[in-house]
């Protein structure tokens, strides 16, 4: 009596699998292995992109300026385009924060992402449906903030580091009155001690006050229960620090606010 045993083919491109989540059962009938199919496609794409960039670099001259002259410095003196975002941040914050604290927070925040991400379907799922919060925060931080600051510094910052609209002439003799004031002074505080206290209250109401309010509002939701208190406060702190850049830029451009908290040791 012949008996036939069917064994699965390990090299098969399509495999049946079932993925379970909390709500329903999803059957994925068309799945392929990462190696060699995805890696091969990524490798070919990288070659095509490199070939296109090489042809572009050979056929187009780099937008370099005239040779450097120590007796004639450019106005304005701009950093390379990939550092213009950081140079633009220096307009709104003290150098210690814009050049040290903020870049450190960006690096630490990127390193912390794998440890604070609680999506159980994280490996191999990168669609917006599976990663709404993560993708939205990344697009906000990279596109809205970083790229917008680079565009602002490249096309709108002219002589004297003044802002020029696209149809305005870059007049090197333009003078803008320095009318920026500190936020506590704008709110009515006149003495240094009062300005110190008002600025401290504003900063601490934002953080950790904002994180604590969010904790009270989200404590009964699945997001907070999955994150836990520690990971929630890390995520909230990084998010509020990132959004503080938007607030400071708005206050400076709209109301000429220089600092929110002024102290003898540092300014925020």
Topology:
Blueprint: E1 17-20, E2 25-28, H1 34-59, H2 84-89, H3 95-116, H4 132-156, H5 183-186, H6 192-206, H7 209-218, H8 222-255
Antiparallel strand pairs: 1-2
Helix pairs in contact: 3-8, 7-8
Q: What are the defining features of this structure?
A:
single chain, 268 residues, mainly alpha, 2 domains, two-stranded antiparallel sheet, 53% helix, disordered N terminus
Describe the fold and architecture.
With 268 residues, the chain is an all-alpha fold. It folds into 2 domains: 14-59; 77-255, no CATH class. The protein has 8 helices and 2 strands. It has helices at residues 34-59, 84-89, 95-116, 132-156, 183-186, 192-206, 209-218, 222-255, and strands at residues 17-20, 25-28. It has a two-stranded antiparallel sheet with strand order 1-2. It is flat and about 70 Å long.
């Amino acid at each position: 009596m012949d008996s036939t045993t069917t064994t699965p083919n390990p090299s098969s491109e399509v495999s049946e699998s079932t993925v379970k989540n909390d709500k329903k059962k999803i059957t994925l009938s068309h799945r392929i292995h990462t190696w060699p199919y995805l890696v091969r496609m990524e490798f070919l794409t990288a070659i095509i992109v490199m070939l296109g960039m090489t042809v572009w670099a050979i056929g187009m001259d780099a937008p370099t300026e005239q040779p450097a002259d120590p007796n004639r410095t450019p106005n304005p003196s701009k950093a390379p385009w990939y550092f213009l975002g950081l140079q633009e941040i220096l307009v709104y914050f003290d150098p210690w924060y814009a050049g040290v604290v903020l870049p450190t927070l960006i690096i630490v925040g990127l390193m912390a992402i794998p440890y604070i991400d609680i999506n159980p379907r994280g490996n191999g799922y990168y669609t917006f449906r599976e990663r709404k919060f993560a993708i939205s925060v990344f697009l906000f931080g990279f596109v809205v903030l970083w790229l917008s600051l680079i565009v602002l510094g490249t096309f709108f910052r002219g002589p004297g580091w003044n802002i020029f609209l696209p149809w305005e002439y870059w007049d090197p003799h333009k003078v803008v009155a320095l009318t920026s004031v500190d936020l506590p002074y704008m709110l009515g505080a006149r003495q240094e001690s009062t300005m110190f206290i008002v600025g401290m209250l504003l900063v601490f109401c934002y953080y950790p006050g904002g994180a604590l309010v969010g904790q009270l509002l989200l404590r009964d939701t699945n997001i907070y229960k999955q994150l836990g208190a520690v990971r929630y406060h890390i995520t909230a702190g990084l998010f509020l620090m990132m959004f503080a850049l938007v607030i400071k830029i708005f206050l400076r451009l709209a109301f000429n606010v220089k600092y929110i908290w002024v102290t003898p040791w540092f300014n925020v």
